[in-house]
Design a protein that fits this description.
The chain has one domain: Rossmann fold, CATH 3.40.50.720. It is built from ten helices and eight strands. A hairpin with a 2-residue loop joins strand 7 and strand 8. Helix 4 packs parallel to helix 5 and helix 5 runs parallel beside helix 6. The longest helix has 23 residues. The structure holds NADP nicotinamide-adenine-dinucleotide phosphate. NADP nicotinamide-adenine-dinucleotide phosphate (NAP) binds next to helix 2. One of its GO terms (molecular function) is oxidoreductase activity. Keywords: Oxidoreductase. Belongs to the short-chain dehydrogenases/reductases (SDR) family.
Amino acid sequence: MSDFGESSTADDVLAGQDLSGKTVFITGGNSGLGRETGRAMAAKGAHVVLAGRDQEKLNAAVTAIKADHPEAQIESIICDLGALESVRACGKEARDRFDKIDVLINNAGVMATPKGATNDGLETQFGTNHIGHFLLTKHLMPLVEKGQDKRIVNLSSRGHHMAPVDLDDPNFENRDYNEWVSYGQSKTANILFTVGLEQRFGGKGIHAYAVHPGGIRTNLSRHLSEDQSKALISRVTKSDPGFSWKTIPQGAATQCWAATASELRDRGGVYCEDCHVAEVDETSSTGGVRSYALDSASADRLWSMSEQMVGESFTA
Ligand SMILES: NC(=O)c1ccc[n+]([C@@H]2O[C@H](COP(=O)([O-])OP(=O)(O)OC[C@H]3O[C@@H](n4cnc5c(N)ncnc54)[C@H](OP(=O)(O)O)[C@@H]3O)[C@@H](O)[C@H]2O)c1
């Protein structure tokens, strides 16, 4: 279904594409996969908006991309996904500054954080990785509705294999906190959100995709101690003896593919890895998507719960 695979890079996937006229909005755009996605898309003529929580880091990313591509149309906007007021302010500012968004890439994320809470009292990983993006997407939807070939790409992870969403206790109020169960839950929520978006907006020509980018050495591991890092690598290589790290350009490929591939034009609500749509698989540790992450009843429950948590409804 696609000519690309595990070793393809963002530039490979975008080769031959002309993205001029498209506006691409990327959260977590100052670092890792988000920054490389922004670079590769700006190099193909897209108007790129990098969102992040630190203006200095955003400025550094914009400057570095412009140094490589002086013609890049790239700018930045502040959005702290761990603070709902900041998300609302970002949505308002974006609606004032931009006419439309053709591609929204909900890429930012935190992994394996110690037990903690966002500004609004939500568990850090669920609150940042899912709820922050849920509210941001709601506030950017009026711009997405004005785009062409409208797509929303949500960065998930194979880490979703570690846990479904506990819809009765997403914030770990009645169970012991575990940083990997929490990360897995938040990455499953990214897929269920994709399913919920497709159910509500697919008919309006807005399609949503969840992506596992691969295993890539980025700042994502900043919360891991040396021992936790070793334990993670040993778990991954035991369960997937063929595992190898991707480079950042390879890691950014699947989100660039989901954002632009013509094969996906009228199809969404899917989970992609290695530049392909993944199959449902209940047991494999080397790929595939768990059925609990695509379950439409769970997607509906998560949607309603997310609306309650942000205190806003997200009408289609
Ligand atoms: N790398 C991998 O192996 C891997 C594997 C599977 C899935 N993923 C997913 O890929 C995505 C990108 O990760 P990456 O590897 O590129 O990691 P990264 O380099 O650490 O980038 C993460 C980005 O998210 C931003 N972010 C974190 N908390 C935020 C908040 N509260 N508000 C706004 N932005 C926030 C970070 O901003 P700051 O710089 O300000 O912290 C950074 O820009 C994540 O969703 C991750 O779960 C990565």
